[in-house]
Design a protein that fits this description.
single chain, Jelly Rolls, Immunoglobulin-like, six-stranded antiparallel sheet, about 15% helix
């Protein structure tokens, strides 16, 4: 019998509030990785999320269970009721969110969390940070609208100091609108109707959310650029709330040994002389530490840690006049997998930092020295792993606003830029804003050596202008203007795609002007029973029945690829690191539980690519 005063609704609410974290579990019937099987809702991506600007000890991780609800898109008032709990930072469509629901362009996703802000954070300003939210995000603190952010692949933050109440309890609400493939925004491989090479949508918070306490005057960001030829590191920093006479002191360390120091007025560019530095490469991924102090009247008022590497990426002609990519003034053949960065349980979000690191470690164990990060941007910690493990990175801009282009796959047929898309003013603004921010936020990671603004004409527009802008913004790296087609005779690299066999642009026509690259090839498919996204209709560009057939064909591809290197090929990208949804052309299964070709076998095969003599 029901007790007096209790209704079915109130009993349900009491039960929901009681079970909470105890009842969270992955939803759906898709694959789980070993890390996804061990997710602890009280300890989700607990690592400090910003390795290139570390102000540790004064931060608070907000990952974990939040309340959520879905409303009509036009609703802008914070909801009074909530549907359930969602595990942040996993997108609502993912199994690890505990929700597994799809969001349409006619809906808004709301989050809510009540929390206590650590007292040590409230001595100065309090910043609320988001690693990434897809796509448009409004943030409320104690029912005050703090601000809006647009962009699904970059970090952002708000100063919430004035919105905090006295006392312990604070309330945060977040509203997200994400049109996925119904909007012009950068989205990468997401689509509302997943099929083929297009995958499940990712909406909402998908990277770490955290609070940070800072002084009234604090270091917002740093920019450090190696200059190997002159044995120095250029350095500058953005400082909020700076006053006249504020100084920055920058120290470089090799372990506990200080190797360089520079100081200057806030706002000026400095240079640290770094003599006798060990140069960073995949064979020797040497990193040096930075300590940055913001001082006023000789007193340190803020201090952060960072790191850097001394490395140089450039282009130089070989003895036949064919342009080559040079790492630290030596030719290094770039060979790596197309890395989508997708997970069966977390979609865009790896189940844990260990999982994030695993893919990089496995790539290195397989004998690759490069990763092409394919139309996705990873959390900052992924790039830190590439830096420390020693993997070169080609970083794509996530594509969006597809359609309206004619894809000219082979260069030389169409004058550059003739078939660019005519984007709307709003679409162009969104692209430029996000690409600019991505390049700024990833600038300090030495593993990144190539920027790739466009892929296979997906939303490609104003190719020459965008490429020249990218080069001007970051002359310390190379630019591959249009991977796979619609080449506009601009940038450093000419990149074709060819499946499944190895191929290259004609060195006699293009080799004198551009580095020649095979931006995608391979795609050899092998579904492994019990480790596929779906039971049937899986595919690869060329499919096989067993591991031995796959190994034999892959070995043939490597032999053919090796023959192209002396002719002028400088880089190649194999599709791909893992299976992704119905694509079974990965070297690992989607759940990372099965290697289709042993790492040692792959490493032995790849070694001959790096040992090929090029004069």
């Amino acid at each position: 019998m029901m007790k007096k005063g209790l209704t079915l609704l109130s009993i349900g609410l009491l039960l929901w509030g009681h079970v909470g974290a105890q009842e969270w579990r992955p939803v759906g019937d898709k694959l789980l990785t070993e890390w996804g099987e061990k997710v602890d809702v009280k300890n989700v991506h607990a690592e400090y999320p910003r390795p290139q600007l570390e102000r540790s000890g004064n931060w608070q991780n907000l990952n974990g269970l939040w309340k959520y609800t879905i409303t009509a898109q036009e609703q802008t008032a914070i909801p009074a009721n909530w549907e359930g709990e969602i595990l942040v930072p996993f997108a609502i469509e993912s199994a690890l969110s505990g929700v597994g629901k799809r969001l349409t362009e006619k809906q808004a996703l709301w989050y809510n969390r009540e929390l206590t802000v650590d007292k040590k954070l409230r001595k100065g300003k309090v910043l609320l940070h988001f690693g990434a939210v897809d796509w448009q995000c409004d943030v409320y603190v104690n029912e005050q609208l703090i601000g809006r952010h647009e962009g699904g692949f970059n970090a952002f933050s708000f100063d919430i100091t004035k919105a905090l109440k006295k006392g312990d309890k604070q309330d945060i609400a977040v509203r997200v609108w994400d049109p996925t493939s119904e909007g012009p925004q950068p989205r990468g491989k997401q689509i509302n109707n997943p099929h083929g090479i297009w995958y499940t949508p990712v909406s909402g918070i998908w990277q770490t959310v955290w609070l940070e306490g800072v002084a009234d005057t604090y270091i917002v960001s740093t920019k450090q650029t190696p200059d190997v030829d002159n044995k120095r590191l250029s350095f500058q920093a953005e400082v909020a709330g700076a006053k006249s006479g504020d100084m920055l002191v920058v120290e470089a360390y090799d372990g506990d040994t200080k190797i360089a120091e520079a100081n200057g007025i806030v706002g000026t560019q400095m240079a640290l002389q770094v003599s006798d530095a060990l140069l960073w490469s995949p064979d020797s991924p040497k990193l040096y530490d930075l300590r940055v102090k913001l001082q006023r009247g000789g007193k340190t008022i803020d201090e952060v840690k960072s790191y850097f590497a001394m490395r140089k990426i450039a282009v130089k002609a070989d003895e036949h006049g064919v342009k080559r990519m040079m790492l630290n003034d030596k030719f290094v053949f770039h060979y790596g997998p197309l890395d989508q960065g997708w997970w069966p349980d977390g979609l865009h979000t790896a189940p844990s930092d260990d999982a994030l690191k695993y893919d990089v470690e496995k790539t290195k164990e397989m004998g690759f020295n490069m990763i092409r990060k394919h139309i996705k941007v990873e959390p900052a910690r992924w790039y830190r792993h590439c830096d420390s493990i020693g993997v070169l990175v080609w970083q794509d801009m996530p594509s969006g606003d597809l359609g309206g282009n004619v894809w000219d796959m082979m260069p030389g047929k169409i004058s550059g830029g003739k078939h660019d898309k005519d984007r709307s003013e709003e679409s162009e603004r969104i692209f430029r804003q996000e690409w600019n921010t991505i390049m700024e936020q990833l600038h300090n990671f030495p593993s990144i050596v190539v920027w790739v603004p466009f892929n296979e004409a997906w939303g490609q527009f104003k190719t020459k202008e965008i490429t020249e802008w990218t080069i001007a913004k970051d002359p310390s790296r190379l630019v591959n203007s249009a991977s796979g087609g619609n080449f506009a005779y601009v940038g450093d690299i000419l990149d074709i795609h060819n499946y499944p066999d190895a191929a290259m642009p004609d060195p006699d026509i293009f080799g004198k002007d551009y580095v020649l690259a095979l931006g995608e090839y391979g795609g050899l498919g092998l579904p492994i029973e019990g480790h596929t996204w779906q039971q049937k209709d899986n595919w690869g560009y060329q499919s096989f029945k067993n591991k031995e057939e796959l190994r034999k064909r892959y070995s043939e591809l490597i032999d053919n690829l090796q023959r192209l290197i002396p002719k002028g090929l400088s880089a190649a990208v194999y599709t791909q690191t893992t299976d992704v949804e119905i694509e079974t052309n990965g070297l690992m299964t989607y759940d990372r539980k099965v290697m289709k070709i042993p790492e040692s076998t792959l490493s032995d095969l790849h070694s001959k690519l790096y040992n090929t003599v090029v004069k």
